[in-house]
Every structure is written in structure tokens, then in C-alpha cells.
Amino acid sequence: MMRAWILPMLLVLSGSVVAAGLLLKGSAGAAVALLLVFLLLAGVNSPLIFPRSIGAVEAQRRSAVDGRPVVFWRPGCVYCLRLRIRLGRSARRLHWVDIWRDADGAAAVRAANDGNETVPTVVVAGRPHVNPDSAWVREQLSPPA
User: Fold this and answer.
1) CA distance 68 to 103
2) Per-residue pLDDT tens digits for 28-87
3) More confident residue, 20 or 76
4) How far apart are CA 145 and CA 68, in angstroms?
5) Are 47 and 16 a contacting pair, CB within 8 Å?
6) What is the dihedral of CA 121, 114, 104, 7, to 10 degrees?
7) How many angstroms separate the CA atoms of 17 and 29, rounded?
8) What's the Cα-to-Cα distance from 91 to each of 7, 53, 58, rounded to whole Å?
9) pLDDT tens digits for 92-119?
10) Reduced to 3 states, what is the DSSP secondary structure of residue 130?
11) Which element (helix H / strand E) includes 5?
């Protein structure tokens, strides 16, 4: 779990150090602006922007019941972030599995990608799709009940 927070913590720490340096030089406005940018980057790269992750076994069980796709992702992945942002509110209807928190999820991704942990990997009806277009993923969602 801690692994997912390394990049956001480094961004906050780096931003704080740079902002403190600017503050000491008398550039309070620039320090605040820079710190806000670093905080925004930390938030975007944190697990908080993604829907709650579940285990791969549970995600596959739920997908078999409701037909919704399973998205395997990891924090810090810009392609996962892009998919999440482009899906908008539809992202909540998918089953998300953080491969850094779930060994079964990481194994499923490696099995689908010739041993590589390439994410996002979206599994629809048992077939994996690596880094699919967000519009296509949205089409795979069943209509809301």
C-alpha cells in the first residue's frame, strides 16, 4: 500500500522545499503558486483520484455477474490517469484493480501481456485489452439499471 503513495509524497516534499526556497528569497506569490502546482500533481498521481480498488478475484466475480469491465491499473501510470479522466463519471461503473495492492491482479496482467505489467489492461468478457480508447471502454458498459 505504501508503494502507491511514494510519488505523491515525493511531489509534496519537493514542492515544499522549492516553495520554502522561494519564500526565503521573498517571492511569496511564486512560492504559493508553485506549492499549489506540486499539490495538484500529487493529488492527480495519488490513488485518491481512482474509484476504490478491489481484489482481482472479487472484480472478476462481480464482472461475471454484472458484465462490467475490469480495469487493472497502478498509481503513477499516466495512461491509467488519462483513461480515468476521460471516462469521467462512467469510471465508477467499472471494477478497478490496483496491481500494486493485489498480487492476483498483477499476475492476471502479466498473463495477458507476455509477462509485462502493462496497464491499463481492461478485461471485457474474459478478453484483455491493453490501453484501450476510453470511448470504446464506455461503449462496453451495460446501460444503467
Assistant:
1) 21
2) 999 999 999 999 888 877 777 777 889 999 999 999 999 899 999 998 888 998 999 898
3) 20
4) 12
5) no
6) -60
7) 15
8) 23, 12, 17
9) 899 999 999 899 999 999 999 999 999 9
10) strand
11) none
Residue 62 CA to residue 14 CA, distance in Å, equals 40
> Of all residues in the chain, what percent are helix, strand and coil, respectively (each to 5)?
60, 10, 30
Residue 145 — pLDDT band, cuts 50, 70, 90? very low
Q: Which three cell numbers stand for residue 99?
A: 496491481
C-alpha of 115 from chain center: 20
Question: Residue type for 63, please?
Answer: S
Q: Which of 45, 99, 90, 35 is nearest to 68 (CA)?
A: 90
Largest CA distance in the chain: 60
